[in-house]
Amino acid sequence: MSKKLICHAAELVTCAGKAPKHGKEMSEIGIIHDGAVLIDGDKIIAVGTTEELKQKYDGADCEIIDATGKTVMPGFVDCHTHFVFGGYRADEFSWRLRGDSYMSIMERGGGINASVSKTRAASLEELVEAGRDRMDRMLEFGVTTVEGKSGYGLDKETELKQLRAMKELNASHPVDVVSTFMGPHSVLPEYKGKEREFIEMMLREVMPIVKEENLAEFADIFTEKNVFSIEDSRYYLNEAKKMGFHLKIHADEIVQLGGAELAAEVGATSAEHLLQSSEAGIAAMAKSGVICTTLPATAFSLKEEYANARRMIEEGAAVAIASDLNPGSCFTNSIPLLIALSCIYMGLSIEEVITALTINGAAAVNRADKIGSIEPGKQADIIFLRYPSIHFLPYHTAINLVDTVMKNGEIVLKR
Ligand code: NIG
Ligand code: FE
Q: Would you state the pLDDT for residue 68?
């Protein structure tokens, strides 16, 4: 009996149709009341009301899953994290509470470079086990696909070790991992003033192996004052594109450098953070179809202004929301926190937030044809909420409402 019929969902959120969803389309999440989903193996084969699907498919070879009183929706796609790393930086959080800034901690040797030493010291097995534990907790929040970045190695051996850990986790954990190479994540003291040389080393000595072993689909860079300049970022991204990588960019997080404009210029799949992006930068991203990935938990943790997601939507851009889980600027993967911050501080409706966390997140990892919505032909990555409406998501503030997670047609978590 490989068929399953989920039926009587109080609200079935499909997120079906065009992908990604831009501007006003982000409000169209395709709710079906008393909804049903038919699954065969790992795929969704039909979607409709319970009455429609029961008439057509109710048969002896079908397991019935009753979702009475529940909201059923696509699994969340956390499209921006740095979840594979060694050690922690809890002390830095307390320094920031005292008034130190993220960049001042970085400039005196803390920040990303502190995680580099700890990640270099960790074995592959240690990284895999720590990563697995974090993925277990992602799954509890209903995340069924996660993007993960390297960038705590800054040398060949450790960058590859991080990516190999993610490859192993993708193969052995129910949550799917999409990997991003982010060698240019920080500048070690020995490369200060020689950033181009560092990028060249990454491009010529590390990235060919990443390609050869199929260790990452995306290339990313931290474009920021005192990290990588616009010129160095442009060079790196264009070279990475020639090598066949899709592009992402950490843009305009602390200082408005023009990262949003650069993302549009190089044809990046997505640009991330965007707290300081200019209006021209936002318009350029909307026009060229760059997905604007906002990371509100990072703005919250750093006590920075939130990205202007309303402006992005008004300009007709496709907005995604992700956790940015990492050991420094944002050590949380809480989806309920993201929902609360997005609704309360970024001013998004719950419909827009759901789009940003599902189909637009899927598009940000080039998977919108396979995941992110409940439609025939898609992978059966489906979550059940223990309340009958999406409106409980922001209302039951910061509480995890996920009670069941189905991954590839199998129930992998029940609370
Ligand atoms: O997206 N800004 C750069 N990279 C990460 C932070 C990494 C860290 O602090 O360890 C980010 O916020
Ligand atoms: Fe990040």
A: 98
